[in-house]
Amino acid sequence: MKHIDLVEIMNDSAYLQKDVTVCGWVRTSRDSKNMAFLELNDGTTLKHLQIVIDKNVIADPSEYMKLGMSWAVEGTVVPSGVMADSVEINAKKITVLGTCPPEYPLQKKRHTLEYLRTIPALRVRTNTFNAVFRVRSVVSAAIHEFFQSRHYVYVHTPLITASDCEGAGEMFRVTTVGVEDGYKTQAEADENDFFGRRAALSVSGQLEGEVAAMAFGKIYTFGPSFRAEKSNTPRHVAEFWHVEPEVAFAELPDIIEIAEDMIKHIIRTVLEKCPSELKFFDAHFEKGLIEKLESVANNDFAIMTYTEAVEKLLASGEKFQYPVYWGCDLMTEHERYITEQICKKPVFLTNYPKEIKSFYMKQNPDGKTVAATDLLVPGVGEIIGCSEREADLDKLLDAMQTRGMSMDEYEDYISLRRFGSVPHSGFGLGLERIIMYVTGVQNIRDVILYPRTVGSIS
User: Fold this and answer.
1) Which DSSP string do the residues of 217-268 spell out, in sequence order?
2) CA-to-CA distance for 429 and 266, rounded, in angstroms?
3) 182-241 tens-digit pLDDT
4) Alpha carbon distance 264, 262 (integer Å)
5) Which residue from 42, 40, 58 is spatially nearest to 50, judged by alpha carbons?
6) pLDDT digit string (tens) for 322-331?
7) CA distances from 151 to 146, 219, 234, 245 (A)
8) What pLDDT was estimated at residue 180?
9) If you placed Cys at 98, which of 70, 185, 302, 431 could pair as Cys (CB 3.0 to 4.6 Å)?
10) Can you tell me the mean pLDDT for 153-161?
11) Contact 28, 69 (CB under 8 A)
């Protein structure tokens, strides 16, 4: 159907006094004696375009007034009668594309986010989700732009795997075998399964990404990851999008610099390309959001060791739900206190105890910590997990043996340390978490199209 996007009409004065055809959904309607006014949105912009119906031209507009219905409108673009630097369309002809019954759920102007999660097929038509997913699109493009402009190779790592990158075992099993097949043992079932062994959905493409980095130098993956943690929190979903660069010849300070540059590039891009969306989020979700993002984009991030952070948390006198001690895995309340109260800006925490980090992280000379860092940001907590990878074969094997891991399952990964091993580093950024940060939206379920959570796959 030939038509013009609303965003073009709103931003290009060349359409003034021209006849155009536009399409969209009715967002608001108002009737009067001689005129009717409707706001149309086609998804190409957060703003709605007013359609003015003169009843001398269209005698009975009542059938066009129902919220949620879709139209094609032919009319003339004219300056807005109520808003400066804006336009509207004087309708000449309206064609109904899709009707909508009175029980359309989005009758009110404001609904709670909790209610909107119950209608995922319709919530995307609201201003909030129009803005969220427009920002999500821009952030995704900015990530590709950042890496592509710096000579990284984009690789696609497997979603089905036989190894657990994190070593935690919280993975979704992939199988064609059911209880009705009658196998007596799990080993027998695995042997007769599709792959001839146990398989699962990947929690990370890192291990395969390291393989690619040993050939191409700098690579990144960008795709879905799956974690079967039964965490029903505002920061966790079972399926999320994951950005994972791996960089050869990079030590921890190098990858920290890359991570900071990437975050700043994302924020600057959103500030440039999403001014209307950020103004909306600043008004309705996080006061001062734009000022915060501008400050982050123009100032250095803090760097603090895990040990220093624990000391400052203990000295703060704050009563935390979870106790703080050296060796504990810092919780969201600790991370947010560090970045919001102590540093008051994004901070890289470095050199974590090796017992609470993954087997592949480079062991520091002190024998107690690893060359790992998490990037913590105000309002969210951790958004990046990062480390220098262990390049020493003997130390890697020792870490794996200590954890009781199967060497056979990781033979390809281990072999990287036998054939031309080099210092290398990488990180993982949860796409949804950076979107939460740049929008001020507090629940991860509200920045992903169909959130998959414990007990919910609607």
Assistant:
1) SEEEEEEEEE------STT--SEEEEEEEEEET--HHHHHHHHHHHHHHHHH
2) 12
3) 888 989 999 999 999 999 999 999 999 999 999 999 999 999 999 998 888 888 999 999
4) 5
5) 40
6) 999 999 999 9
7) 9, 8, 35, 12
8) 81
9) 70
10) 96
11) no
Give the pair of three-digit tokens for residue 364.
Answer: 């520091």
> Per the structure block, which two tokens stand in for 1?
């159907």
Among candidate residues 431, 396, 439, 424, the one with its CA nearest the CA of residue 258: 424
b or e along 110-146 (b: 16 or more beta carbons within 10 Å of the residue's beta carbon)? ebebeebbeeeeebebbbbbbbbbbbbebbbebbeeb
- Residue 248 C-beta-side C-alpha neighbours within 13 Å: 19
Kindly report, residue by residue over 443-453, the tens digit of the pLDDT: 999 999 999 99
Q: pLDDT (tens digit, 9 = 90+) per residue, 82-93?
A: 888 899 999 999
Q: Which residues contact 184 (CB under 8 A, 6 or more apart)?
A: none
Is residue 385 within 8 A of residue 376, CB to CB? The reply is no
Q: Tokens in use for 68? A: 């949620």
Strands 49-54 and 87-98: parallel
Q: Are 48 and 40 in contact (CB under 8 A)?
A: yes
Distance (Å, rounded) from C-alpha 412 to C-alpha 44?
A: 46
Closest CA to 10 of 58, 44, 38, 56: 44
Which pLDDT value is given to residue 165?
72
